[in-house]
Write a structure and sequence with these properties.
By secondary structure, the protein is of the alpha/beta class. It contains seven helices and twelve strands.
Length: about 250
């Protein structure tokens, strides 16, 4: 079923007039026609099953037939602090991180980032990528995407109740799994470096802010790979990858 984020709060039986962007997608791209069924997501955690009854030049209209909690949101709030990467790699992290369940993306400017400025047009493109990935993957909320900030600023504003982890190739013994198993439930922050990795001074600075260096195993991963692997491991270790079907393990 096709999913679309659109601002609104509707009741069962209420008519919905689709916004221009969603109406264009439905009528001109997907070429849906009544009585097609779509899902609207209000970005507040609710999903609305909508039966279309009008698709024409005047617009797209439907009626809400069901309102349920959106099922795709993990209970663990994970923020991915990602060192800025080259455009295609960073966009891949945004897309796959959204699919996995990342709640907030914070692009980082670090000692070894090769990108230091991001235009408004690029931020808008990133927002579209995140929104489309959230729609495709069945998320109930669009992940928050912040403008790039220096690593020092991110560390200084890290919420005190957060379990903050930083994969680092020089850390050989403390694993992500063991750290999560030894900690009570917390919001989780992952700090992933850019293509050139972390500098030693950056690791020491992170440690002064109670960010724990961890290993992701014996192989050295590319930055974009480390981001997706680490996020997936967090959700798996915390039980967020289990089926919602009680009869399935």
């Amino acid at each position: 079923m096709h999913r679309f984020f659109m601002a609104g709060l509707w009741q069962v039986g209420e008519e919905v007039v689709l916004a221009e962007a969603q109406a264009h997608q439905i009528s001109q791209v997907l070429r849906l026609r009544p009585p097609a069924i779509i899902t609207l997501l209000d970005n507040q955690g609710w999903a609305y099953t909508v039966a279309l009854h009008e698709v024409n030049k005047r617009g797209v209209r439907g009626r809400v037939v069901e309102r349920t909690p959106a099922p795709g949101e993990p209970s663990t709030h994970l923020t991915l602090y990602q060192g800025l990467l080259k455009t295609d790699k960073f966009e891949w992290v945004l897309q796959k991180g959204t699919e996995i369940g990342v709640a907030r993306f914070v692009p980082l400017i670090t000692v070894r980032t090769v990108v230091h400025e991001v235009s408004l047009n690029k931020m808008a493109r990133w927002e579209r990528i995140v929104t489309e990935a959230a729609e495709q993957s069945g998320r109930g909320r669009i992940p928050e995407l912040l403008p790039p900030i220096p690593l020092s600023s991110a560390l200084a504003t890290l919420p005190p109740d957060t379990l903050a982890l930083i994969p680092y190739e020089q850390e050989k013994t403390i694993s992500l799994q063991a750290t999560l198993a030894a900690s009570p439930p917390h919001p989780v922050a992952l700090f992933i470096g850019p293509e050139g990795g972390w500098g030693e001074d950056e690791i020491r600075l992170a440690q002064t802010h109670q960010v724990q260096p961890i290993t992701l195993g014996p192989r050295i991963l590319r930055a974009e790979t480390a981001a997706v692997v680490a996020a997936a491991l967090v959700f798996y270790q915390l039980g967020e990858m289990k089926s919602t079907n009680p009869t399935t393990n």
